[in-house]
Amino acid sequence: MSVRPILRLSWNRCRQYCQFSSPEDSKWLTLPPVSMTTVVNANQLTSSTSTTALKWVIRCCPQLPKTLIHKLFRLKQVRMLPSLLLSQQQQQEEDNHHNHKFKRVTPKDTLNSGDRIFLPHSVKQITPESLAPKHDSPLTLTAKQINFIRTLVIYKDPHILVLNKPPGMPVQGGINIKRSLDAVAAECLNYHYSEPPRLVHRLDRDCSGILVMGRTKTTTTLLHSIFRDKTSRASDDIGTKNRILQRRYWALVLGCPRRSGGLVTAPLGKVVVDNGKSDRITIVDNSTSLSPQHAITEYRVIGSSSHGYTWLELSPLTGRKHQLRVHCAEVLGTPIVGDYKYGWQAHKKWGQFDLSNLEESTEEHLKEEALPFGLNLNKGSISDKHPRLHLHCKQIVLPNISQALQNVQSLSASTYDLSVVEALELEADLPPFMKKSWDVTNS
After folding, report:
1. How confident is the model at residue 205 (pLDDT cuts 50, 70, 90)?
2. What residues contact residue 387 under an 8 Å CB cut-off, 6+ apart?
């Protein structure tokens, strides 16, 4: 599912990006000059120096309610100074700001690189307390927790962070979830940047492995475009080896697929179960009214064991919720070990696992905390009564974003082919309980 990047800045941080065009009695609040934006389409990195006035105000001041921003435009209280005129007047004295030849702009007016937007000084009076909803106490981390999160980083450059996500830790916050990985990363993985790293994609709570985060707004937007373009172009990428984005998961499954490798193309849809109390993803027919989404997965057998287990390498060409878990369980007929949502019956027939008190076993893991955040990565192998989900994002190949952005700027090109950029190939080690299962099945 494509996700639009959400730019969340605190009001204080927003004010760091904005400047008052003169002392405190000035009439205008100056937003940062319009900068280049980038998108990806058909492996082409396209840079654009134009945007609309509305989009730029929303981007620079995400803390302001959109209703207020629209009202400012409606009352004609938003001004613009073209970059050419601005460059001429920057040489004047500070006390000549009132001589700026401001131009009124509408929400749909196009801005070019370097243009400046001015908002009424009165927006400064809007405080975070008057806008933000009331939250619980701020997130506080111990030195041990901070050090643990930093040990998860397996790659870092000026534009991206790559983590080896531990199983059992939610990626994003939600109901009764406070210490999600994105919130924790915002507290301790800034590395002196003025803005926190942002999620680019998701992993299930019980899934482990590679998680990519953008360190800047530009990078995050670009990576979102790459992941969206991957899903929209999935049918064209079948059989090609030079895809600019590749993800490979390792999974231990019950049984063995009929073929040693192949392609799964089965659309997915969401259905409501338990009288509306929960939902699940399932294979749907295109003739149904569930608005199915196409989902494509490549797979190959890595190895099988006399115990009846099989290790698979799964490469999703699309990015759908629970795609790999559903394709394994419902299409290949080999549910992933520890996937009780989509493979309950298979685990029950398997007979060697105790499925009577799964919730209690989870609580026991938390009580026997071995790592920060209540994580215990040693328990949950196939040797235990309650195996955990054996699904791990082991490898990712993606363009070197830092190099791509540098090339676009140095070449002053409007388009740039990402397939010619040096590829980053990153790997993440299996969690301890999966390593143990690997040793057992290969003994």
Report:
1. very high
2. 337, 338, 353, 380, 381, 433, 437
Q: Is 275 left (phi over 0), alpha (psi -120 to 50) or beta?
A: left
Residue 162 pairs with which residues in a beta bridge? 155, 212
C-alpha closest to that of 339 among 355, 319, 356, 320: 355
Q: Which tokens go with 209?
A: 């492995």
Q: Do the Cβ atoms of 341 and 274 come closer than 8 Å?
A: no
pLDDT digits (tens, 9 = 90+) for 303-358: 988 889 999 999 999 989 999 999 999 999 999 999 999 998 999 888 777 777 66
Three-class SS of residue 94? helix
SS3 call for 88: helix
Is residue 46 within 8 A of residue 95, CB to CB? The reply is no
**Cα 169 to Cα 204: distance, rounded to the nearest angstrom:** 9
Q: What is the pLDDT of residues 251-302, one digit of tens each?
A: 999 999 999 999 999 999 888 877 766 788 999 876 554 556 889 999 999 9
Express each pLDDT in 359-378 by its tens digit. 555 555 545 557 888 899 99
> Do the beta carbons of residue 327 and residue 316 sit within 8 Å?
no
Q: Which residues are catalytic, by number? A: 204
The predicted model gives 151-174 an average pLDDT of 93
DSSP-derived secondary structure for 176-202: TB-S-HHHHHHHH--TT-SS--EE-S-
Give CA–CA dist 315/203, Å, rounded.
14
CA separation for the pair 277, 307 (Å, rounded): 37
Report yes or no: 158 and 208 within 8 Å, Cβ to Cβ: no
DSSP state of 245: -
| Chain centroid, CA 309 distance in Å | 32
Residue 315 makes CB contacts below 8 A (sequence gap 6+) with 246, 247, 248, 249, 297, 298, 299
The separation between CA 116 and the C-alpha centre of its own chain, rounded to angstroms, equals 30
Q: What is the DSSP string of 9-38?
A: --HHHHHHH-EESSSTT-SEEEPPPP--EE
Spatial separation of the C-alpha atoms in residues 334 and 327, rounded to whole Å: 9
**Radius of gyration of the chain measured on its C-alpha atoms:** 25
* Interatomic CA distance for residues 328 and 206, integer angstroms: 16
Angle at 45 between CA 41 and CA 47, to 5 degrees: 110
Query: Taking the C-alpha atoms of 303, 307, 309 and 310 in order, what is their torsion angle to the nearest 10 degrees?
Result: 10
The residues pairing with 303 across neighbouring beta strands, listed in sequence order, are 311
